[in-house]
Design goal:
single chain; mainly alpha; 124 residues; two-stranded parallel sheet; 2 domains; 2 strands; globular
Length: 124
C-alpha cells in the first residue's frame, strides 16, 4: 500500500496486551514527515512521546492523564475530530471475524482487517 505521494504505508499490528505508549515507540520512524498534528488518546500521554513528535515537527494533540502533575496543553477542538477514527473502529468490530479474532496468525488477522476496511470504505 502507498500514500498519495507514492510512499509506502506501514501498518502495525501489536499484541493485545501491549500498552499504547509501548506501541507508539515502534512507529517513531514510520511517522510521515508531512504530518503536522497527531491526535491520540490518554494512553499516548508521555513526555518522551511528546518530545519525539515535536522533534519531528509534529504537534501532539493528546489529553493529559488525570494523575499528571503538570498537565500538558492540547487543542480540544482538534481532539473532537478523533471520533471519526473511533467510529471506523466500531464499524470494523461489526465484522464478527475481526471482533472475536478467529485467526491465530497475525498476518491472516491483518489481512482480514484490510479486507473489512476496504469493503467499509467502498460501501460508504
Amino acid at each position: 500500500m502507498v500514500d498519495e505521494h507514492g510512499r509506502p504505508l506501514i501498518l502495525l499490528l501489536s499484541e493485545g496486551q501491549m500498552s499504547d505508549h509501548t506501541g507508539a515507540k515502534l512507529v517513531y520512524d514510520a511517522l510521515p514527515p508531512s504530518a503536522t498534528h497527531l491526535i491520540g488518546d490518554k494512553g499516548y500521554d508521555s513526555d518522551e512521546f511528546r518530545q519525539t513528535l515535536r522533534a519531528k515537527g509534529i504537534e501532539p494533540c493528546i489529553p493529559p492523564r488525570r494523575n499528571r502533575k503538570s498537565p500538558a496543553l492540547y487543542c480540544k477542538k482538534l481532539y473532537k475530530t478523533r471520533h471519526k477514527v473511533e467510529n471506523f473502529f466500531g464499524k470494523l468490530k461489526d465484522w464478527r471475524r475481526v471482533a472475536t479474532r478467529y485467526d491465530r496468525c497475525a498476518h491472516t488477522f491483518m489481512s482480514t482487517i484490510c479486507i473489512a476496511a476496504f469493503v467499509i470504505y467502498y460501501l460508504n
